[in-house]
């Protein structure tokens, strides 16, 4: 397999906000894909510190209607609530959510084992988590699903933990909302790459002039 076969999915992955409460693939297939992402995504020192909670259909709806909405309403300025509620209803009307956690026990195990990198492990744990998010986001969209990434942590952490039996120590990092796309995302603008975001020297590119 050449890089193109991966670069194409990277290129077509986008943020889809308009989603339906249905899926382009079966619940079993969703589970299979998440399983593969959890198994094969790399982690700092192979710590495997990421934990994933998948909520489908009615359980997904419960998250957004019964947990996120009241939590946001409690802290939102009254004039902002109408807009927030509309946005949250959009998420509630999708098909599923994947919640990405890090287990701090795995991070402190690393810190004890490798004291030299002690101060680096929390950051590498965030990197590890983000890699899982990106891998799953990209994989889902290869199956015709649309997804968007949200961050209602830590506002919702306690309620989610007590509802789905998640250890209170796990740290929630992000929520990937997904479903069948109801519309396509718009054009995306790009900053210049060569000379601004990408620098290559050596080989045919030569030394810096
Ligand atoms: C680390 C990270 C955090 C993000 N957080 C949010 C978020 O909290 N809410 C949201 O609606 N989109 C969020 N996004 C989506 C970005 O806004 C989006 O990926 C970006 O505008 C590029 O658009 P694209 O995903 O269609 O390529 C996040 C993306 C990344 C990579």
From TrEMBL:
GO molecular-function terms, A-Z: oxidoreductase activity
Principal subcellular localisation of the protein: cytoplasm
GO biological process: cellular response to oxidative stress
Transmembrane segments: none
UniProt xrefs under Gene3D superfamilies: NADH Oxidase (3.40.109.10)
Family: Belongs to the nitroreductase family.
Record's protein name: Putative nitro HBN1
């Amino acid at each position: 397999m050449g890089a193109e076969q991966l670069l194409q999915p990277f290129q077509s992955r986008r943020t889809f906000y308009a989603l339906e409460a249905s899926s382009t693939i079966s619940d079993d297939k969703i589970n299979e894909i998440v399983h593969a992402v959890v198994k094969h995504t790399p982690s700092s020192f192979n710590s495997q510190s990421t934990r994933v909670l998948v909520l489908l259909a009615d359980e997904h709806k419960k998250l957004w209607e019964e947990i996120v909405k009241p939590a946001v309403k409690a802290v939102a300025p009254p004039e902002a609530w109408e807009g927030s509620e509309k946005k949250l209803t959009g998420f509630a009307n999708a098909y599923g959510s994947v919640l990405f956690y890090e287990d701090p026990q795995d991070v402190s195990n690393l810190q004890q084992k490798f004291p030299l990198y002690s101060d680096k492990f929390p950051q590498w744990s965030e990197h590890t988590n983000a890699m899982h998010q990106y891998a799953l986001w990209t994989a889902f969209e290869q199956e015709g699903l649309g997804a968007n990434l949200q961050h209602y942590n830590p506002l919702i952490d306690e309620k989610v933990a007590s509802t789905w039996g998640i250890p209170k120590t796990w740290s929630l990092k992000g929520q990937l909302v997904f479903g069948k796309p109801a519309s396509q995302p718009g054009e995306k603008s790009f900053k210049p790459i060569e000379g601004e975001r990408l620098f290559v020297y050596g080989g045919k590119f030569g030394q810096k002039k």
